[in-house]
Every structure is written in C-alpha cells, then in structure tokens.
Fold each of these.
Amino acid sequence: MDNNESIRIVVTGGTFDKEYDELTGSLFFKASHVGEMLRLGRSELNVTIQTLMLIDSLEMTDERRGFLLQAVRAAPEDRILITHGTDTMEVTARAFASEGLGAKTVVLTGAMVPYMFGSSDGLFNLGSALAFVQALPPGVYVAMNGRAFPAEHVRKNRTSGKFEWVS
C-alpha cells in the first residue's frame, strides 16, 4: 500500500465503543474510542474516521445497514474499515458482499469486551483489521481474533464467543 493511500474507518458503535455506567450497571454510548485507540497503538496510517452511528449491533436494521452502505459507496477511499457490533456483523458483511462494491476492500471488526474495560480485545482487533484492509484484495471480510474471513464464510459461534469459518 502506498504510504499516502488513505483508509476510511466508519464507526457504527458496538461493544467497541460502549462505556459502563457504575450507578446503573448498564452499558451506553458517549463517543467513539477509535481515535484514542489509534494513538495508543502509535498508528502512522493515513486514516479518516467517520462516526456514522453509535448503536448496539442488535439495533442494526436494514435501514441503518442501507445508510452504512451508502457511506461506504460514497467514500473516496477504496479501503474501508467498519467498527461494528459482533451480534450482527456477519449479517452486514454478507449484505455488503452481495452488493458488488467494485474495487473496495471492506473489513468489519469489533470487540467482545468494551475497550473501556481495559481487558478488551478491541485494540488487537482494530490493529489486525487495519493490517488486513491494506493486504486483502477487494471484497468484504470480517476480521476478529487475528483472523480474516470472507463475508460468505464466517459466523459467530455463540457458544465459544469466537468467529469461525463456515462453508
């Protein structure tokens, strides 16, 4: 990848950006943590961060997915990383793969534990996804736990809490 080539990071929320309210014991959204995560990771990549929405992926409706797809299509960059909740990540990935996005490489990633908890897998998943979006050919992928899966061959194993290959 050319050092000047930009990557667009589109934020949709998910566990990645959840915070914990100590008074109510509930999780909520305040702002995205992606910029802070990039600083902590000492990223030197040319990225544009676009916060599109801050929602739990269980709230990712077809209408919101369409709004996200419009943002991906409108992006001038060919390399797009989407932060997304894990519960419906594979649904969004498959929907996007069926849309034919041409020369764009789209990688969806997320976290099983909120970044603000300190023990989150989010920082690792973000770093891995940034590497994958630069290295993979055009298409739609899910990047979790150091692995990248084509959209058509991934599912979240709800027993193990990990993403896995499916035929």
Amino acid sequence: MEPERTIWQISGGPASRAYADVFVRHGVGLIGPGDAGPWSLDRYAYDFSLQGFVGRFATEVHVGDIVLLRTGLSKVRAIGLVASEYMYLDQFDDVNGWDLQHARRVRWCELPADYEFGTPVFGANPTRFSRAAMPEVVDYARRFVASPPTYWQQVPLPGLPEEEPPVDCVPEAIRHVVAEAQDLHPLLWDRDRFGEHPAEDEMVAHFVIPLLRALGWPPERIAVKWRYIDVSLFAALPRTPQNCHLVIEAKRLGAGVEGALEQARGYVTALGVPRNVMVTDGIRYRLYSAAQDFAPVAYANLVRLKQSSINLFNRIKRP
C-alpha cells in the first residue's frame, strides 16, 4: 500500500512583497533565508535548529508530498506535488528582495481564484514552511489531489531561470552610492543595533537623491514632494507636467516596492501625461514603462548588482 502523503504549507510571501507567482511560473517551492548557503547537517545543526523550517524543508519532505501555496492566514493560491529532493538554487537570491535559495521542484495546480477557508487555519503567525495539521486543511488537500482533473500531476516541469551573473564592474559614477548601500544595508536591517527600519524620507535622502545626482541629474531637475509625488525628475524647466520625465514613489525599507506601483500610477493619471514610473525603497529600484501599460522593464538592487541592473541605470540617467 502506498504510504500516505504528508501535507505541507509554504508561504507565498507577504502581500507587499509576494512571490507566489514565481513559484507557479518556475515550478518551485522556495524558502529563505538562503544567503548562508546550502543546507547541510553539520553546518545548519549549529546555525539553525534541526527542527527549524530550513532543516524540515531539506530533510523531512518527500517526493510526492502535497504542498499548499499559502497567501495570508486562510487562503490557498495553488496546490502542488513535490517533484524533487532538496536543491540550492542561487538564481533565486533576489526575489522581490528576498534570498530564497532553498528549493524544491513542485508541480503546481494554480487555482482560478484563491481558496478561502474563512478562518486562520494556518495559525496566527505561521512559519514560512511547516506541516499542515488542521483537519479541514488536510481533508481539502487530499480531496483536491484525488479529484479530476489530475493531468497537472504528470506534466513536465517548467524550465528554471538561468542564474544571472553579478555586474562585471560597477559604473564609476555610482560606485560611492553602491558602496555605501552595501556597507549600511546589514545595519539598517538589524533592529537590535539600529532600531526601527528607516522611513521612506530617510531612504530618499540617503540613497535615492545621491543616486540620481550621480546619474547626472542636477538639483533643480529633482523635485521632492512635488504635487505629492515623492521624487520627480524633469527633462527641462519649468517644473510642469509636460516637462516631468519620471515619477518615483518611495517606500520604507522592507515595505515592498512593488506594492507602490498603483499609487504611482495614480500620480501619473493626475498629471495627465504618460510618464514612466520607478518604485524604490532606496536599495531596490524597479522601473515600469507607461508605453507598455506599466509593465516592469528594469530592476536593480544596490546590494546585489546583476548585469541587468545596468539597463536600469542607463534608462534613468539624465538624457
């Protein structure tokens, strides 16, 4: 008789910095923090409790187990079957700012809409990965996997993205900004040594404006809080909507820059002219194209500079 499959839940990230779509698109389940390197018994027995979620994810999961892709405390985005042993995939070192290199391949069946249990069935403060124990969750998972259609359980796994190499040489103009970001970033995240994370205005002052100045923008072409926009760049003076070149919306460190897009689009609508948008927390920068219905077109993380980041710097430097 086939052994009963264990049922697990894995987080798709907080609403402000979600990454569930990455799981489904690439056929993976990912957890972090992963910067410490691949899980190993000797190393992680010291660095992390063997009963912690990293060790559990690496050692207790079996191919064929059921995984629920959780969003929040009571919703499920997709149901999957584990399709590989533990892997360490460095191409997932920056997923919306998260280091999620601990991986398993998963065949996902994405639901047409999130399934809502109605109560916090995953607990008031669930870990990123754990066994699913609530009877209604276990029953739902087993019935779903046993019910047709079941073709998704045998489909080929999607390809994995290639690992992007780090930037060969940081552009000289921005080296001092990048160096300062890399020096300060660990401190800014350390609540014991630093205190609360810095607010968005502080990140704008210490990182965003210096980066823009380094990319050739003079102070008279950089507006702060113009028409309520955090930062605006102007191709020419005077500062009018027609001369606005780029709208920048800032968030505090860790708040999730991707969640700022809709607010920034509202500012563009109020201007009455189509303009590109960039969202940032001072460390991460994502650029959206107005001409492509605000699709993301460039990205840079100052503490994890990849080759593609040069595209963003080239796009936002002063013409």
